[in-house]
């Protein structure tokens, strides 16, 4: 593998030396505005560790789902339970899958039942303009649950009137005596206008499954529109996703699990100017329905049915004044769940004697009120300081406060020092509190997780190359982990203290002139270390199962005219699993009206597991074509 690292490094150096002066790719990247809910910050001016996945990167990456796209982001640990976005757990900087907040255009889509549903998103890769990955505490900016980081997926109505359609098919040479396939199709129409525009799309993916009980069917419906009025621009977003999949090994080894989820999202906001203030009120609603069968062939054996509703209202405002930029916000959020269980009761001989219906998690309701205040000071033309505070009232836990401070100093035009500190928290999910199942028992005495995180680093923004080096330290208290003292006991969540996590991240990226062999290249390395105290004689399920080393390299280059090739190489070393390398590749032909691609994932046919007891697919080949017609 050392040869791979050397080759990518040489390519990056070559591109830097040969790039033309008229290239503006990196300048455009630096000026991308990060869409925080109040203040808007150019990417190059941010005093946080932020990674951008742009539309251009999405088009060149060998991935068919958001889960797969995020697996190439430094410091992000995606634990997939199958290909093409079936289900995955999302972790950032050694945090658990419950400690990350996901947003779509600033709309929070967290699930109060469990973080396993965090990526049930009504989107496909064609809907995304860019993905903003904030690493580090986000409570001051986004409120609760942005504990280890936050991911904001940005969509928009395309600027050109167009119709698009695409289809792909793939084949996996399975290890069970037969070849299995997968395919997907998508279509969309964009109707932009001067005062009103809309965009609608539909996508469907399905797979026969690459191992027993791993078949899947997924459908995404997405709609977005804007209308310019006398008050301001009114924005509407709606989506629905349906996912049915065999879940063998998702939670229990060698199981016959099966799951169906239905997730809906609706939001409306107004972008207005009122008395020198930019004001943005928003309403949103999210529903998730989860139907889980422990035995697919016998639904009555054990069947959990969970339905959650999350409704929210918020108002964010900013104003430029002589002291800098002021941001204020208020939010209210209500979370409701109704969860039932159907199970068979058997006698000593194993015969079914009764079928019982009762609560799985039960019926619960809770509310959150949050107040935001922050101000950005511009000092001495080089120093940028942003203190802020988020105050939260939670119906189950009372009042809490979460201060934070970001600061950056421009050493030169290209070099920047930055640092930040913040307090973050995460409220227990309903599963943490109330679940009662065959191998898991909730704990209604849990308290919210809390942590102070400190980060410092240096960034470089050149004409063609940008990068950063950062170090962070997170001092967590009352962190929640599912534990047990022996394998005969069920898992139960407990609060632990003195959980310290620190890490180092190094990242270098380059984008070069289209006329040259190399179009883009990147290298990144992440090191994480966690020390979980007070666990003698206790088996930890999640907190110590974190990344230790992560290496990611990418290369995109031109083969001939409009034919290009991209490759992605990943190395992951986790504390409780064997380390592995995975190599993915895509060759694609692109014109103004259509493109075609061939991509191969896990070219090295590596055997590895990311979550649960699910062995990930071996070598997989996909072919596809997309057509875009403007009118």
Descriptive tags:
22-stranded antiparallel β-barrel, globular, 631 residues, Maltoporin, Chain A, disordered N terminus, 6 helices, five-stranded mixed beta sheet, mainly beta
Can you characterise this structure?
With 631 residues, this protein is mainly beta. The chain has a single domain, classed as Beta Barrel (Maltoporin, Chain A), CATH 2.40.170. It is built from six helices and 34 strands. Strand 16 and strand 17 form a beta hairpin. It starts with a helix and ends with a strand. The N terminus is likely disordered.
Short description:
With 631 residues, this protein is mostly beta strands.
What's the total count of β strands? 34
CATH classification class: Mainly Beta
Sketch the major β-sheet: 22 strands, antiparallel, barrel
CATH superfamily: TonB-dependent receptor, beta-barrel domain
Rg, alpha carbons: 24 Å
Write the layout of secondary structure elements.
Elements: H1 2-18, H2 25-30, E1 33-35, E2 40-42, E3 49-54, H3 55-60, H4 66-70, E4 76-80, E5 88-92, E6 100-104, E7 107-108, E8 128-135, H5 139-142, E9 149-155, E10 162-173, E11 179-191, E12 196-207, E13 216-228, E14 233-246, E15 258-274, E16 277-293, E17 302-321, E18 324-346, E19 352-379, E20 383-394, E21 398-410, E22 415-426, H6 430-434, E23 449-461, E24 465-477, E25 479-484, E26 492-496, E27 499-511, E28 518-532, E29 539-540, E30 547-560, E31 563-574, E32 580-590, E33 594-601, E34 620-630
Parallel strand pairs: 6-9
Antiparallel strand pairs: 1-2, 3-8, 4-5, 6-7, 8-9, 10-11, 10-34, 11-12, 12-13, 13-14, 14-15, 15-16, 16-17, 17-18, 18-19, 19-20, 20-21, 21-22, 22-23, 23-24, 24-27, 25-26, 25-29, 27-28, 28-30, 30-31, 31-32, 32-33, 33-34
